[in-house]
Specification:
Layout: H1 2-5, E1 18-26, E2 32-34, E3 42-44, E4 49-53, E5 56-59, E6 65-68, E7 79-87
Antiparallel strand pairs: 1-7, 2-4, 3-6, 4-5, 6-7
Length: 89
C-alpha cells in the first residue's frame, strides 16, 4: 500500500473496542474523587470501589463495570462518570 511505497512502517491495526453506557453516576457531594485514572476505561469487579463521594464509597454495580467519561471535578448534582460495559464484537 501507500505506507510501503512511502517508506513508512505499517500501523498495527486492532479491532475497535466498543462500550455501552449502563448508568450514570451523579455526585451527591462536591467531593467525589475517583480511585483510578481520570482517563477512564478502567475495569472494576462487582463491589470494587471506583470513587469516594465525600466519605461514601461508589461501588461497581456488576463485574466488568467500566468507568466511562469521568469528569475531573464534578459538583453535587452533576454527572461524575458513567458505568459502562464492553460490547462483544
Amino acid at each position: 500500500g501507500d505506507a510501503g511505497r512511502l517508506g513508512l512502517e505499517p500501523v498495527e491495526t486492532r479491532p475497535i473496542e466498543r462500550y455501552e453506557i449502563v448508568q450514570p453516576v451523579i455526585a451527591a457531594t462536591d467531593a467525589l474523587r475517583l480511585t483510578c485514572s481520570y482517563a477512564g476505561f478502567v475495569v472494576f469487579p462487582a463491589g470494587g470501589v471506583a470513587a469516594y463521594d465525600g466519605q461514601a464509597p461508589v461501588l461497581a454495580p456488576f463485574d466488568g463495570a467500566v468507568v466511562l467519561a469521568p469528569r475531573p471535578d464534578p459538583r453535587a448534582g452533576q454527572q461524575a462518570f458513567a458505568w459502562g460495559r464492553r460490547v462483544a464484537d
